[in-house]
Structures are given as structure tokens and as C-alpha cells.
Amino acid sequence: xxxxxxxxxxxxxxxxxxxxxxxxxxxxxxxxxxxxxxxxxxxxxxxxxxxxxxxxxxxxxxxxxxxxxxxxxxxxxxxxxxxxxxxxxxxxxxxxxxxxxxxxxxxxxxxxxxxxxxxxxxxxxxxxxxxxxxxxxxxxxxxxxxxxxxxxxxxxxxxxxxxxxxxxxxxxxxxxxxxxxxxxxxxxxxxxxxxxxxxxxxxxxxxxxxxxxxxxxxxxxxxxxxxxxxxxxxxxxxxxxxxxxxxxxxxxxxxxxxxxxxxxxxxxxxxxxxxxxxxxxxxxxxxxxxxxxxxxxxxxxxxxxxxxxxxxx
Length: 313
Prior knowledge:
Layout: H1 7-25, E1 27-31, H2 37-52, E2 56-60, H3 68-80, E3 85-88, H4 93-104, E4 108-112, E5 123-127, H5 129-143, E6 149-154, H6 160-175, E7 179-185, H7 190-198, E8 206-208, H8 212-225, E9 232-236, H9 240-248, E10 253-256, H10 259-274, E11 283-287, E12 290-292, H11 297-310
Parallel strand pairs: 1-2, 1-3, 3-4, 4-5, 5-11, 6-7, 6-8, 8-9, 9-10
Antiparallel strand pairs: 10-12
Helix pairs in contact: 2-10, 5-6, 7-8
């Protein structure tokens, strides 16, 4: 008699386990490199792709660029919630080692925004960073008529995306006839930027900063030195503070990544990986950067608004 009723709770348990398993398979863990407006746009694109592919997207990221330890903790956090596919912006070699270990246990990883050598990540979605830096260098060559001195104010030696932009910029600037008078790492530190520029800013005709945090640090340093608008500052990324500096003439030009599209394409690739649709060879998706200045800023802002309202990446 009592045995007859046992099947009902067993069936219910099986259903619950089945639901849990399916939800775990439908989860993508996204680990960003920091928490800035750029990464907020990336997250929005990732979530849109998740919604279109019926995937739950869990997004985590460190407060400061380059925090490998925090990224490792974030990876463990999304894995603990059942994610079997990861999208990561790797900040150091430790991430590569972790990704390779996870691959052996069936966890698939897509890198985005930047690559890391030696990894078994199945795909990469990133701006063509060397080309973007090269374009910035070529632009300054044209703007300065192939003559003059410039500064390259770098981010960090262990960030591959900005290192490629810096490499492209320097090669193009020197090939076009410019002298790179100052080439130093300032990171996100405005005081370091002040110290780097203090003795040489009057000799400079232009400068390049390779991401949003270095661009903001150097902008603050130039303000402190009373030199904004007096030399051609070409920055990178389009967070609100930098856009307003461009509007006011404190920054001359910005190279803008397609942040929303980057997040969107990365999670799309992760969805294909989860469905077993990726080819055996690694998939690489390269995105272009766009230069904006005061002349096309209004048009760029209108396009961004239209994309936001229409939900397009």
C-alpha cells in the first residue's frame, strides 16, 4: 500500500533535477576586465545575445583593470552556479592556465576584448587592436603634416589589447615622420601622468592614450597642467567623461570600439559553442574601431541612440 505513493515524490524529484540540469546548461558566465562605462556597454550586448539565444547570462568583473585574482574568483563564482561556457577578458597568464585546466573537464571558453597566448579558448572576439593603434598614429601624422613630437602614454605591459594598440601607434607614427619623444607607462594614475608630462609637455605636439582609463588619467593631468586643447590628444574609448571632453575641445579625437557589438558577438559565439556548432579550428572575430571628433560627434551620438532604442548591437 505505502509503496504505491512513492513514485510521485520520485517523479517530482526527477523533474526538479531535470530543470536544474537544463538551467545549468543554459548558463553563460561573462567575466569582464573592469567596471567602466565601456564594460557596461559590453555587458548590454552580452545580455541581448543571451536573450536572443535563450541563455542566462551571469556577468561579473573586477573594479580595477588587471585584477587577475578577482577574475579567478569571478570564474569560480559563475562555475559554482552551473555555467559550462565562459566568456572572459583575460587580464593575465593565470587566466590562461585556469582556462586550460577547465577545458579538460569540459568547460568551453571564449575570450573577448583581448587575447592571451597559450590558451585553448575556442574563440576570440576583439577589436583589431594593432590596426586601431596604427590608424591613430597615421591620423596624427596627417594632422601634424608628418612633422613634430608626440607622446605615447601606455596602460600596462601585461594587457595585450592596449599593448597591440601602443605597438601599432608607435610604428605608424615613426613611419610617418613623427618623433616619439615620450614613451612611458602611466596606467590609470593621474599623478604618474602629471610626473611624466611635467617637464616635456611644452615640447609635444600630440599624444596617444590607448584606453578609457589612461585617457581619463592623462586628461586630468593636462587639466592640472593647464594644457588641455593645446596639443592634439588622441584617446581611446567613449565613456561619458571623454565624450564631454571631446565636445569641449579638450580631447581632439577618440577611437571608439564597438563595445555593444563585442559583447553581443562574444555571447553569440558562446551560444554556438554550447550547441556544439563551432568548427574544430579556433574562431576569430575582428571588429573595427571608429574615429570620432567634433565634426561627426553628433552623428555618432544619434546612431548610438537609435541602436539603443531599436535593441540592435
